[in-house]
Amino acid sequence: MGATFVVVLREGFEAALLLGIVYAYLTKIGHPESYRYVTIGGALALAASVLMGVGVTVASGPLADLGPDVIAVGVIFVAVALLTWHGWWMGRHARALRGEVHRRIDEAHARQRLWMVGLIAFTGVFREGAETVLFLWGLLTQLEDSSGWLSLLGGAAGLVGAAILGWAVFQGGRRLSIQGFFAATSVLLLFLAGGLVASGVGRLQGLGVLPAGDPLWDTSWLLDDQSTVGSLLTGLVGYRARPTALEVGGYVLYVVVAGTLFFPALVRRRARRASDVPEPAVNTQR
Amino acid sequence: MTWVRTAASRRWTLMTSVAVFGLVLTTTASAQDKATEIPLTIENNRFSPAEIKVPAGKPFTLVVTNKDGKPEEFESKELRIEKVIPAGRTANIRVRALKPGSYPFFGEFNPKTAQGRIIAE
């Protein structure tokens, strides 16, 4: 029971985190009436996961051998692109959102953002969705004895656990000030997306598209990425016990470049301090 | 309105790059078609053989047959491979040329029992 709980919790963790963040985001920008974009995105992803699960089960030949890998890597990089875009947007608008007057982002702006959060919800759920569907489906076919039922119970509890986590993120996020929320989620998403870049690079190395290399270091004695805590940290900040040079390079490059997009104020402040030139006017209205 | 246009063109760039990427992946993989095939069976939530010896420096294909009544996921952190194998199915997993060493793998859905490793020598 414990084993299936952990498997499902691990698979659902990232989706729950992202859903919690985007729901809270809609509340913070004053558009809770648009939750449906996230709900629809998540529901479509669930449907796509079931379809994918069926596809994997019935497909054969090169389609079955490579299709899931192509889709998995594609979803990873699309998710990175979406999260980067979202973080960049928050970075540009964090300054414009001072005070109650600006609490509600104007209608036109919000409309553009809704597709984005819907897509983030979609990729978040779809990324591990097919795997989770297949796993739970497997549990459903093993109900001959009490241990089968216990396993299913564990799996269901894992889903509930992930949902509680997402709910906690949502409630916590809602209580933050809008600047606090933007800052906290920007940091979170920056490292999460960095971890996704490392995942994508690793998968490409595994597939032989990128050259593989020896691990740069080995911290498995300290924290194995096969352990529960290790794998949760993999999802959260991209922890690897034995990362390759390309993974580390991709991660660092992403965090540095995207960091300047997510936190333009930090970059500006540093530049200003360095050159002592007055800060140029920033057009946050686009 | 310029925003709408750039967003649309960005979306196209994204879709095109995904397509190109898929193509690259397919061609890379088919170039390795002649690799040696090594059978691996999943039964009663375990891998057999649990230890696979392969020559170092040569790519190979793991032909994994799942004889259990539920799906299993072949996963190796070291090899950066994750592959779901549905109940009763066989999947081909291409593995790159390995340096001499031990590369553990496990069944993500039954990590306690489904354990094994590839020894490249």
Low-confidence sequence ranges of chain B: none
Structural class of chain A: mainly alpha
Strand arrangement, major sheet of chain B = 3-9-8-5-6
What is the string of helix and strand elements of chain B? HEEEEEEEEE
Q: Cα distance, first to last residue of chain A? A: 53 Å
How many separate helices of chain B? 1
Classify the beta-strand content of chain B into a percent band: 35-45%
Total beta-strand segments of chain A: 0
**What structural class results from the helix and strand content of chain B?**
alpha+beta
**Mean pLDDT of chain A, nearest integer?**
87
Number of strands of chain B: 9
Please state the CA-atom Rg of chain A, rounded to the nearest Å. 21 Å
Properties at a glance:
heterodimer, A: 286 residues, mainly alpha, 9 helices, 0% strand, globular, B: 121 residues, alpha+beta, five-stranded mixed beta sheet, four-stranded mixed beta sheet, 25% helix
